[in-house]
Design a protein that fits this description.
Elements (H helix, E strand, L loop, with lengths): L5 H8 L9 H10 L9 H16 L3 H13 L5 H10 L2 H8 L5 H9 L3 E3 L2 E2 L12 E4 L12 H7 L6 E4 L4 E4 L7 H4 L3 H8 L2
Antiparallel strand pairs: 1-2, 1-3, 3-5, 4-5
Helix pairs in contact: 3-10, 4-5, 6-7
C-alpha cells in the first residue's frame, strides 16, 4: 500500500506509525494543536477512526471495505470481534506481532520477499489469513540474514499475544487461538468504523 508522508498523516490521525510514537513527535504535535479545536460531526469522527485503523494495519481502502462488509454480513457473530480477528490474523500483522519485523510495513515486505513459511510452505501474500494450528517460521535460507540477527534479543522484551505460542529456539510460532478484541488494549474504535460503512 502506498502511504503518503507519515508525520503529516500521524498529525491528523494520531501516532499510528512506530516512528511517530516518540516523545519528540508528541512535543511537535502538541505545538501544532490549535487553541480552539474545530467541532467534528459524527461523520468526521467516524471517517478519522476508519482512516486510523486502515493506516495502522496498512490495508488499502478496497480491501478494508471488503473486510468490514464480510464482518457485517456474517450472521451470529459480533461484527467488531470478527473485523478485529480478520485484521490481526493477516500474515504481515502476525509476523509483526512475533517481533520478526520492527514495523508492519517491514513485515509486509518480509512476507512479500518470501522469507516467511506457513506450515513449511512459502507464502508471499501479506493478506494471507492464518488460522488455528498454523505454524509460522522463517525460511531456512533466510535465517542467517541480518534482518533476523537481533531476533533473540528483541524477543525477550516483546510480549506475545495470548493466541500465539512462540518457540525461540526453533524460531517458529504456532497459532493456538483467536485474537480477542479489547478496545482499551487495542486503542481502536472498530464499532465507529462499522457505523461509517453502514451509512
Amino acid at each position: 500500500m502506498i502511504i503518503g508522508p507519515r508525520y503529516k498523516i500521524a498529525r491528523r490521525l494520531g501516532p499510528i506509525y512506530e516512528k511517530t510514537q516518540t516523545q519528540k513527535f508528541a512535543v511537535r504535535a502538541a505545538r501544532r494543536v490549535k487553541d480552539v479545536p474545530r467541532p467534528k460531526t459524527d461523520y468526521g469522527v467516524q471517517l478519522l477512526e476508519k482512516q486510523r485503523v486502515r493506516m495502522t494495519y496498512g490495508v488499502n481502502e478496497r480491501q478494508f471495505r471488503k473486510y468490514v462488509t464480510a464482518s457485517v454480513a456474517k450472521r451470529g457473530v459480533n461484527s467488531v470481534e470478527l473485523l478485529y480477528t480478520t485484521l490481526e490474523t493477516r500474515l504481515d500483522n502476525t509476523v509483526y506481532r512475533l517481533g520478526f519485523a520492527p514495523t508492519r510495513a517491514a513485515a509486509r515486505q518480509m512476507v512479500s520477499h518470501g522469507h516467511i513459511l506457513v506450515n513449511n510452505r512459502r507464502v508471499t501474500v501479506p493478506s494471507f489469513q492464518v488460522s488455528k494450528e498454523d505454524v509460522i517460521g522463517i525460511r531456512a535460507g533466510s535465517v542467517g540474514s541480518p534482518m533476523f540477527a537481533q531476533l533473540e534479543e528483541t524477543a525477550k522484551d516483546r510480549t506475545m499475544p495470548a493466541w500465539i505460542k512462540f518457540d525461540l529456539a526453533k524460531k517458529q510460532a504456532t497459532i493456538t487461538g483467536t485474537p480477542v478484541f479489547d478496545r482499551v488494549t487495542a486503542g481502536l474504535n472498530l464499532g465507529s468504523v462499522i457505523e461509517f460503512y453502514s451509512r
